[in-house]
Design brief:
The chain is mainly alpha-helical. The protein has one domain. The protein is built from two helices and no strands. Helix 1 runs antiparallel to helix 2. It is elongated, with a radius of gyration of 16 Å. The mean pLDDT is about 90.
């Protein structure tokens, strides 16, 4: 497994874990109101997820072309 693909999967795993935690603990449970900072973290996590999937896709393309 290439380093690029490994980093992509790590980014995907971390971002999915945060989104699941956010949905379970902060959004669907009663508690204090959500702050702007938490919404920014959620959006950032979605962006990191997209970057991770791009990384995995690019690593697969590189492998098909005969790269590293």
């Amino acid at each position: 497994m290439s380093r690029q693909k490994l980093v992509g999967w790590i980014l995907i795993a971390v971002s999915v874990a945060y989104v699941v935690w956010f949905l379970r603990v902060r959004l669907f449970e009663p508690g204090p109101a959500l702050e702007k900072k938490e919404w920014v973290h959620l959006i950032g996590s979605v962006v990191i997820f997209m970057l991770g999937t791009i990384n995995v896709h690019l690593a697969a393309q590189r492998r098909r072309r005969g790269g590293a």
